[in-house]
């Protein structure tokens, strides 16, 4: 009798265990199915919005690539600031990686405006970094004058970049493009100031804004200008535009 009770007890245990395992597996399957449905719905929504806005696959590819490069630009700018203020041994390597990103951005635009123009874009961006470094140096050395001059030089070099880009493609309205770059500079400056003052919550908040602005505004406006100037390359009907293509001879 005792043996029978023991057998029934074991059977009950394993039955309960199997039921619990079945419920767990069922929950996992349902969650996965719901997640797949959400991802599918998101993809369909993106596609529907793209069709509504007449955004072609080629345009999306360009936009994703430019967003990647400008997102990396924001990330490596922050890493540069952190390394610079910490005075750690990775300053040189971080600077090198940031310069690589600027070369990549130059080449990405050079595909449309020629290698020589792409190289000049990269050089203009590197001049921005030099001025930005002067601003950081002024903070560290507590030389307010050097910091102010560095920030002004950074913004002046940004305006030179804007002028050159608009020469290549006047679909990039000068005022709009300048505003986007200035806003990005302001967010990065605020991020650096908060980092220097060890206000890390504010630093992260400023960086989040700069990163979002880089991928959602700077990259997007660059994409828009290229597509307007080269509609045939993006399977779009030609639009009337006064923009002249500026390829290297």
Structural write-up:
This protein is an all-alpha fold. It has 2 domains: 1-53; 55-234, no CATH class. The protein contains 7 helices and no strands. The protein has helices at 2-52, 57-86, 91-113, 115-140, 144-168, 174-196, 200-229. Helix 2 (57-86) packs antiparallel against helix 3 (91-113), helix 5 packs antiparallel against helix 6 and helix 6 packs antiparallel against helix 7 (200-229). The radius of gyration is 27 Å and the shape is flat.
Features:
2 domains; 0% strand; mainly alpha; 249 residues; single chain
Note the total helix count. 7
Name the beta content range: under 5%
Radius of gyration: 27 Å
**H and E string:** HHHHHHH
Task: Furnish the topology, listing elements before pairings.
Elements: H1 2-52, H2 57-86, H3 91-113, H4 115-140, H5 144-168, H6 174-196, H7 200-229
């Amino acid at each position: 009798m005792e043996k029978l009770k023991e057998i029934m007890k074991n059977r009950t245990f394993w039955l309960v265990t199997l039921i619990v395992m079945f419920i767990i597996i069922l929950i996992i399957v349902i969650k996965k199915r719901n997640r797949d449905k959400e991802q599918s719905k998101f993809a369909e929504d993106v596609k529907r919005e793209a069709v509504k806005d007449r955004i072609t696959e080629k345009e999306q590819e360009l936009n994703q690539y430019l967003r990647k490069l400008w997102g990396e630009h924001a990330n490596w700018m922050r890493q540069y600031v952190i390394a610079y203020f910490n005075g750690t041994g990775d300053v040189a390597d971080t600077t090198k990686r940031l310069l690589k990103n600027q070369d990549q951005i130059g080449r990405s635009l050079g595909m449309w405006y020629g290698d020589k123009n792409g190289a000049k874009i990269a050089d203009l961006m590197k001049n921005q970094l030099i001025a930005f470094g002067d601003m950081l140096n002024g903070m560290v050395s507590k030389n307010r004058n050097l910091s102010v001059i560095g920030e002004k030089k950074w913004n002046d070099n940004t305006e030179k970049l804007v002028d050159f880009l608009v020469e290549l493609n006047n679909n990039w309205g000068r005022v709009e493009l300048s505003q986007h770059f200035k806003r990005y500079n302001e967010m990065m400056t605020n991020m650096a100031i908060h980092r220097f003052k060890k206000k890390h919550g504010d630093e992260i908040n400023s960086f989040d804004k700069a990163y979002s602005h880089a991928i959602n505004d700077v990259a997007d406006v660059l994409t828009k200008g290229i597509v307007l100037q080269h509609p045939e390359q993006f399977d779009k009907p030609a639009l009337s535009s006064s923009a002249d293509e500026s390829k290297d001879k």
